[in-house]
Specification:
alpha+beta; 281 residues; Protein Transport Mog1p, Chain A
């Protein structure tokens, strides 16, 4: 009997050991069941290229700092989808470049006010005293304007890129006086005065580099607005005026006259032009 009990004890011990092994060994994964989702890593994932070379101890990667996010411009160059800025303050609009008609991200008037070459128009300016309009005119059918036909030494000249052009003899140095008309070459604004301001800024393209405006006069004219100003460039200057006139066409008409100080004896023709511009019937 003793041998029988001893044999039963050995069998019981072996059974206990087998159960323990079964509990310790991991079970096979269930291919049809849902696997647990791993928690995201606390370290940020870099959006830049992965370096294959050794990392310097002074490198941001070695210190554990995150790789800077690419700028909007970098993302565009890399061919990524158009990035969405985190906030308006993180993507400031660029400063308008002098000489351009419109800077990216700006309205025409915002670009005007940001241009250091064009000061703000004072609230009150002296009105220009206008003489009686002359009878001799040049008919500009494209703008439906009658432009004063100025006497000698003015003469008609090839109009392109304008629709009419008159010029003074070319001086030894510097620009010559000119009188031109054309449809306004800039963005039309809600009122004639703002359109005239943009037109005056545009006329700097026809003055020497580095030119700046100094306002002399601003007033309403029939069907439009006129601005009188001086354009200063170095030690020289020109006197100029723009007239924006609604002549019933798809765009208002522009008349622009500029006379340098080397021909200042013709400055008296500027008021004559302002007084003589009218809409054709």
């Amino acid at each position: 009997m003793r041998d029988i009990y001893r044999g039963l004890a050995v069998v019981a011990a072996l059974a206990v050991v087998a159960v323990g092994v079964t509990l310790v060994l991991p079970s096979e994964p269930d291919e049809t069941g849902t696997r647990p989702v791993a928690a995201p890593s606390a370290a940020p994932v870099s959006s830049g290229p992965v370096s294959s070379g050794p990392v310097s101890p002074s490198s941001p990667l070695a210190s554990g700092s995150a790789t800077p996010e690419p700028t909007v411009k970098q993302a565009a160059v890399a061919g990524d989808e158009e990035p969405v800025p985190a906030s308006a303050s993180s993507t400031p609009r660029p400063t308008p470049t002098p000489g351009t008609s419109l800077a990216p991200g700006y309205t025409a008037m915002e670009a005007l006010y940001a241009d250091a070459r064009v000061p703000r128009l004072p609230a009150k300016l002296k009105r220009v005293t206008l003489p009686k309009a002359g009878k001799s005119v040049i008919k500009d059918k494209r703008t439906r304007l009658a432009v004063p036909d100025l006497p000698k030494p003015w003469k008609s000249y090839g109009p392109a890129p304008f629709t009419t052009r008159q010029v003074l003899p070319k001086p030894r140095t510097g620009p010559r006086g000119m009188l031109v008309s054309c449809p306004v070459p800039i963005e039309v604004q809600k009122n004639h005065r703002d359109t005239a301001l943009l037109a005056a800024r545009w006329t700097l393209n026809h003055h020497p580099e580095g030119s700046e405006i100094r306002w002399l006069g601003s007033q309403r004219i029939k069907n439009g607005w006129t601005l009188l100003y001086e354009v200063e460039y170095g030690k020289r200057r020109s006197r100029a005026a723009v007239m924006v006139v609604d002549s019933g066409m798809s765009k208002p008409a522009l008349v622009f006259i500029s006379v340098p100080d080397t021909q200042r004896n013709r400055w008296r023709d500027i008021p004559k032009v302002i007084a003589g511009v009218r809409v054709l019937r």
